Amino acid sequence: MVQTLDKTAKLLGSEARFTALNDFEIKYDLLAEVIRAELSNLRTSNAHTKIRSEVRGGGKKPWKQKGTGRARHGSIRSPIWKGGGVTFGPRNTTNWHLKINKSARLAALKSIIKDRLIDDTVFSLKAKTMVDKTKDAATWLDKHCEQTQTRQNHIAVLYTPADKAALIGFKNTGALLVNVNNMKIHKLANAHNLVFTAAALEKMEEKLSKISRKKLV
193 with 153: CB under 8 angstroms? Predict the structure, then answer.
């Protein structure tokens, strides 16, 4: 069930949505795998050390092989010398990218939605709801958090590009604004309450229902 809220966070009622997920079994292991892959793809290799072939100097043997009483050395580039090359140090050539199949990403999305539906933490804003001021958004969130016993940083507001101007008040709050056309699974998984605009709810439900129909064919 999806609960409908107005611009004051008052509950107007609930309706059955996402019927395409009624028989869907949540895939927690797959969801964890997709989240790990997304977080890994955010990593960059910035730390970089030089190996002995990249260190400047060292073309001349420091001293002759015998007769000095000191240990033999062939180059100041050696890793045992101060300022020499580094052995097994970090390199900026490391590739952290992990492939995520489209079907796996969609199954993970369906798992999140189904899990929140079971917990009754999926909400929708009444059509044409305007929350364009930060003060109004903060008041809305305070009331919603009090009703659902959650925190602002555990609330995700999903919108379509056409809704963004009407929800600009949420931008400077603790809530997460998520474009329904460009969602990150790890961000949705971190949100306990999912609040859809009317347009975003229709788009998400249509997307998941198309996936289900394709699977049946």
Answer: no
Contacts of 61 (CB under 8 A, 6+ apart): 73, 74, 75
pTM, two decimal places: 0.80
Backbone torsion region of residue 85, taken as left when φ is above 0, otherwise alpha when ψ lies between -120 and 50, otherwise beta: beta
182, 99, 40, 154 alpha-carbon torsion, rounded to 10°: 40
CA distance 134 to 144: 15
Question: Mind listing the pLDDT tens digit for each residue in 85-109?
Answer: 999 999 998 899 999 999 999 999 9
Measured between alpha carbons, how far apart are the two ends of the chain, in Å? Answer: 27
Cα separation, 176 vs 72, in Å, equals: 62
CATH of domain 2-43+97-216: 3.40.1370.10
Secondary structure of residue 117 in the 3-state scheme = helix
Structural domain spans, the chain: 2-43+97-216, 44-95
